Fold this protein.
Amino acid sequence: MENIIKIKNLHATLQDGTEILKGVNLEVKAGEIHAIMGPNGSGKSTLASVLAGREDYIVTEGEVEYMGKDLLDLSPENRAREGVFLAFQYPVEIPGVSNINFLKTAINEIRAYKGEGPIAAKDFLKMVSEKSKLVELDNKLKNRSVNEGFSGGEKKRNEIFQMAMLSPTLSILDETDSGLDIDALRIVAHGVNTLKTPENASIIVTHYQRLLDYIIPDVVHVLWNGKIVKSGPKELAMELEDKGYDWLKKEVITE
Amino acid sequence: MAYTEKELAKELENKKYEYGFVTDVESDVIRKGLDEDIVRLISSKKNEPEWLLEWRLSAFRIWKKMEEPEWAHLHYTKPDFQDLHYYAAPKTKKTLNSLDEVDPEILKTFNKLGIPIEEQKVLSGVAVDFVMDSVSVKTTFKDKLGELGIIFSSFSEAVQEHPELVKKYLGKVVPKADNFYAALNSAVFSDGSFCYIPKGVKCPMELSTYFRINEANTGQFERTLVVADEDSYVSYLEGCTAPQRDENQLHAAVVELIALDGAEIKYSTVQNWYPGDSEGKGGIFNFVTKRGICESRAKISWTQVETGSAVTWKYPSCILKGDNSEGEFYSVAVTNNYQQADTGTKMIHLGKNTKSVIISKGISAGKSNNSYRGLVQMNAGASNARNFSQCDSLLIGDQCGAHTFPYIEVMNKSARAEHEATTSKIGEDQLFYCNQRGIETEKAISLIVNGYAKEVLNKLPMEFAIEAQKLLEISLEGSVG
């Protein structure tokens, strides 16, 4: 199977030099869903942000190969245009810019990058109507300003709606389950499962196991203290839920 | 790499004024300074009737006793009014019949501005009365408008050809003694535009004037008078850009609008005077008095997109004198670098059932300061008067300021005024969010700013809306390196 992303010995620090990622190794192949779990402060969200190109972090060492390209060499917008999508833990509000206009701009920017002309209005609207059903997004929300006045659950569903509209090659979901009630969780999971194809891949960052009841990962990794300390099949998530992260800490230390 | 606020701020700082150039046209300049002789000289150069000279002189005497106002949230070195030229006019050899006869230098200026007059004539049906420095060079479409009885000409021309109209309405909305700058303008105004729409006539095209300041150190004192007779309608566009200059240039215009019973005037402005460089050097001082009066059932709508000038002092206002009259004010004011703007409106409700709407959108970037100052006054006779005001501020970076000074005076129990205000910020998070969706930073800023200003931009006539959008982008964006 083809590699979507290959992370080798990735080190990243905060602007003040504090090292958060201390040598992450990870390979995700086409058609796979990987879950990254770990206690608070282990570096899960940092990994997601670094892959998307957020400038709060400085990569000090390591390589990230994405679809045969050097991901770290690309600007954040070009990473997005190449098919890397980050579902934000805290989606940002953009007052005055309608959700629809925002997405149309995004789609056309991505198309322009690929040398394609702007999307036809008819095709765009058809796509909006199809994809919004997937996450049961209220019609009104589509025309409202991006995330403005959305509830926590609506914001997360909107992230998955955008993901559906942009059909990325690699989706990174950063704590998408946090703050969701069980219904919203199911809707989000349904969206992610439906969007899964043999050609794309997902990295799901989560603190809790419960999202993984709905999205079945191919591999579960445990990130602790800036490193992936354990990887295994989906059962690893259950084990973590039962025994807690402390169990693992002991295991890592004794190793 | 992702974009930080610091980089954004730095980039905005380095954004150069794109319309800075000087047209090389022979000019007729009179000596610096201001006294009664200069006022007489201006009047005589324009071959004005005695009553107008007297009007100017009385304005000058009032002005001499006045002090420059200091209440605005603005800090600048006051101009030395004796160190300015009060009159400059391009030397025209003869009256022009067609564009071919216009000085090629002037035509070149228009081409640089991206507003080819030929194209405008053909494509948009806009009659353009362009003002190069102080004297109108050419008025187009005059004949066509003439058939409808519409008068659209330079102010000087109107003084010669329609003295009775000018005399009847001049100073009726903005009296000579209204304020320091209005008094100064009344004394030394050089030219401007005059427009009269007869009873029941709907002006079939947008009337448009382009102003430019051209002569170094020349105070620019435009005077605009628009009279819409009963049940008539006119949409008037005013747009300006100015060449780059090192020394501050003073601009103190007066605009008077008169909407008689049932008339409607839409007055739109796109203002892009030279704002000074990134260190706050140079730039236009823009002290403008704009006011309209509405008789019964009349409506005046001010729309402004303000991106230029080092210092802006401007409050387009409506006196809602007649019952059931309406006033509107839609404004986008952008300040960047060291620009300062103190702008807003006054809605004076005198008549019954009068309505007013104020939508003000301030955008501050760099080290600039942007203030909204507005007065909503419901007088004793203004039964059932209504006002809705919304004043929003958008901040870019962390070194700029946004201020709101709303004044509401209600003297009638049945009158109602509503005021809403918000402050928001374009942050790194928003830009990164856009980047992560494939939208580059420049585009993201434009998207956010245009979304924010949409309500106001929608009020502009189509061809102006596009120009205004472009101006917002030019004012706030840099080329992302």
